[in-house]
Amino acid sequence: MKSENTSSIKKLKKQENIIGYLFASPWLLGITLLGAFPILASLYISFTTYDMISAPTFIGLKNYIILFTNDTIFWKSMWNTVYHVMISVPLGLVTGISLALLLNNKIKGMSVYRTMFYLPNVVSIVAMALLWMWLFQPNFGVINELLSPIYKLFNMEPLQWYQSASTSKITLILMGMWTAGGSMVIYLAQMQDIPVSLYESAEVDGANWIQKTIHITLPLMTPSIFFNFIMGIIGGFQVFTIAYIMTNGGPSRSTYYFAYYMFDKMMTDHSMGMASAMAWILLIIILIITTFALRLNKRVVYLGEES
User: Domain 63-300 belongs to what topology?
Assistant: First the structure.
């Protein structure tokens, strides 16, 4: 009788798997036909010189050797990107979690506030960049107008924000915090899934709000924190649009990110071979970082009690 039940369960699981693959088949077919070929083609092109007009010429590892040994702009763009990731990812995590903690309270009109904080994520990134260019404008921007009392108090010159090499990176990072509402929604969803009984037990033991947050909320939120951490790294290495619109990679290449340099190699220099090599370098970097992070998954992420 037990063997019959086991075989029926296996049969049911097999049927469910087949149904799942059938539902996923349009996506699988699309990614195979429209994704796999371009990916493999870019790998081949990365070993060639190709100007998108004449036929590609195979040159082996020459593109990679030039990038690593004879291209100072490559390393400049890499440093700009790494700097962006190192600052923006932790700052984005803290901002998103802080917003979620504030908006997790059950008070009247809270849904309106949640919507307001999420709205920037549905705004076009081009429109958002143009808006922040006006806000950060050194001469008549709103932010410098608000900071003018501080400038006068300390006898400082107004910050030049995105027009200065010393502050341009930070300016773009601060602008990116405006979209922290996207991660906030994920944090909120996991917060509201935490059993209320855990908080009630902690209150009986005399725990205050800070203690409950540190010992209950944050540990149980580690899956969503880890997810946003990985997605933040991937997105950070691909940053391009805001620099393209706001600073054009400047001043003095201070916001000339890796993806921007790759874009220029392809569209300005018409060097598809070099651009493809950079794309694969970026893929390998992200793959290494995410693989290392996933190995730490069991150590830093709470996945519930093991049965």
Answer: MetI-like fold (1.10.3720)
